[in-house]
Amino acid sequence: MRIFDIPNPELDNTRKMFRDLESDLRHTKIDLGIGIYRDENGDAPVFGAIKKAEKILFQTEISKSYKTPSGNLSYCNNILDLVLGQSVLKDRHGKIGVIQIPGAGSGLRIAGELIKSSTKNRCISVPDPTWRQQPFMFQKSGLSIKKYVYYDTKNNFLDFEGMLTDLNKLESGDALLLHGCCHNPTGADLSVDQWEEVAHVCSKIGLLPFIDLVYQGLGKGIEEDVEGIRRLVSIVPEVILTVSSSKTFGVYRDRCGLMAVITDVERVKASSLETMLSEIARELYFHPPDHAASVINILLEDVNLKKEWSLELNTMQKRIVSLRDKFANALQEKQNSDYFSFLNTQSGMFSLLPISNESILSLRHNNGVYLMPDGRINIASLPEIKIEYLSKIISELPEFN
Ligand SMILES: Cc1ncc(COP(=O)(O)O)c(C=O)c1O
What we know:
Blueprint (H helix, E strand, L loop, with lengths): L12 H11 L6 E2 L16 H13 L12 H19 L4 E6 L2 H15 L4 E6 L4 H9 L2 E6 L1 E2 L4 E2 L1 H8 L7 E5 L12 H14 L2 E6 L13 H7 L5 E6 L12 E6 L7 H15 L6 H10 L2 H33 L6 H4 L4 E3 L4 H11 L1 E2 L5 E3 L8 H9 L6
Parallel strand pairs: 1-12, 3-4, 3-7, 7-8, 8-9
Antiparallel strand pairs: 2-10, 5-6, 9-10, 11-13
Helix pairs in contact: 2-10, 2-11, 3-8, 3-10, 4-5, 7-8, 11-14
């Protein structure tokens, strides 16, 4: 008998999609599945400002000895400044515990463990729909999961009334997952006033918001994308926050982000909150990798590099807006209707196309066009020269005729 004599594991639909994509040898195939930003040539290049900061790190790094499970705290403070801004940081001075983590994906598990160990309900409510990895990680942490109405998938809009109705049914002590901006998979975001309304519901019922922020700068802009978060944090006493640097700094594979717990309790110290978080990290993976955190820290502390990075990010954001516009126009022209105008009102990389499984598979097999199995399309990976072709084959699908 052998211990590892295991059967072939059954792949889920997402992994099947990536397997099909990899084995598809057509050079015309279009990958609109994976969540990365690509330029017109289909490349996901390293930011120029990151390359320069890496050069500085290469010349100045004198040791690769261990840090601690809390990781690079200077990086964390610079990112918190970028996300929360000076006013919130001043207001919550000494009441924010933070650690660096290997990306927001890992943050989901840390948050799951934290919610399990510190709330009596051990429950989190997630938007319907949401990025599948989120409930998967929460469930693996032992949380029970509720869903709240978020998006009308038939009519392609944010169903805020439905959301408020469901939030008002939650119980004191429940955690509430909110996407910081550029909701994955719908691209439909709350307005700043809607963030404020959600904040008041959280305060009234006693909900614990957990904000997962991954796409700062790719929706409306670096400041605009976090306005809602700042408004919520100025109202709700306790908040959990994860921030990813994968997309905002293009360091996907280097694995870097942060996790923060924000409170207003007078006697609690930031260092105690940090220890609480780093103890969970120690149980799960011990120490985070340092490379991307050190590089981003160098970049954010250098006025010129920071400016160069923000210009690069702005260029990407503008290109996504322009691709959305061109794609929506091309589809509307073919359809002779304004049905696809929702693509223009949504933000960031993703939108959800209201198409059937059969059509998703037909696009994949007949046309070499890869969407996620739920119909999510990554507009930030769409080459402009393919828009005409893509809108033609989409408008010929049975659901649009
Ligand atoms: C909503 C959301 N959370 C978390 C992540 C994971 O990000 P990271 O690369 O930092 O692990 C993603 C990435 O696609 C995401 O869309």
